[in-house]
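worker-3 :: picked Beta-xylanase
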Amino acid sequence: MRSTTTRSRTRLRLAGALATVLVAAGIATGPAAQAGEQHGPSHGGQPTLADLAQRHGRYFGSATDNPELTDEPYKAVLGSEFDMITPGNGMKWYATEPQQGVFDWSKGDEIVNLARANHQRVRGHTLVWHSQLPDWLTGRTWTAPELRAVLKKHIQTEVRHYRGKIYAWDVVNEAFNEDGTYRETVFYKTLGPGYIADALRWAHQADPKAKLYLNDYNIEGIGPKSDAYYKLAQELQAQGVPLDGIGLQAHLALQYGYPTTLEDNLRRFSRLRLDTALTEVDVRMFVPADEAKLATQAEWYRDMTEACLAVRRCVGITLWDYTDKYSWIPAFFEGEGAALPWDEQLAPKPAYFAIRDALS
Ligand code: G3I
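worker-3 :: tokens ->
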């Protein structure tokens, strides 16, 4: 039987080895991280994803949601590894204007305040979307002048509230169908396609310094839906409408293949003098995950990161939360999950190391 001293030495060695692994993985372990201090080379000199991205003039972000903010280990990584934060739900219409003309900033403010305390910037998400609308808006019909006034008031009140605190707004989210036709939302049906230009103009009036984006999924590669954005961007520019960027959500799934035209697609928007960003990245798979699936997933994260770095106006990458513990996927796609670079125990997966490699 081994002596107590041998056992405690072994324990110490194991703890040391674990700390080395965590530090190598960029997982903050020290008191600074636990206090949610600024990201930076504060843990053993190991640069964070944000530090690495900044060396390329890019950001590396994560979405988060209010209920998760009681989870201190989760918060420590959120506060240390990233330099851009997106509220996953807290700034949506149902949350911010639950009754007509009655605004509630509590959820958005909580996330903005946390981000500011951690010296992180914020992407505002989202002002105009057909989903997660309040009942008062969806439960009745509107004339065009009525809905126009409602939309203008919502956009301008929200953007004004956060004026100076938001790096970029997803002004209109998911405006197109897969075939590139306009999605028949209440806004489109009541106001026509001009609601997009109006929304951008109203947002710009309320915070002239915020970058204004159109944001959608399945527009990573070149195809009818991303073509629709390309064409709309040109039309808006010709009309002098304020538009700064296109957000490619990048909710990928192993079973559908990698969007190999991503880099070319980013480049064509750059040529229009528009920024681009990967705004909601995750790569889902059928669970359980195995080594082969995780390896492919890691390749995809690497490829996406490299594509963004290769195109000057691709300004940054945001994960749609960073850990499988809080991913939206299992609730929406039965049998799928494991989409993020950190697992449910907050341990880094091969995807995490692949992103580091790409950024290094
Ligand atoms: O707030 C209620 C809570 O009161 C209730 O107990 C609970 C029971 O299901 O539901 C809660 O609402 C959920 C909400 O998230 C807040 O957690 C909704 O059911 C759920 O549907 C909703 O999901 C969000 C989803 O958008 C809605 O479409 C996800 O969290 C959010 O990550 C996801 O984000 C979207 C982006 O905004 C746009 N792009 C796609 C992306 C993924 O769908």
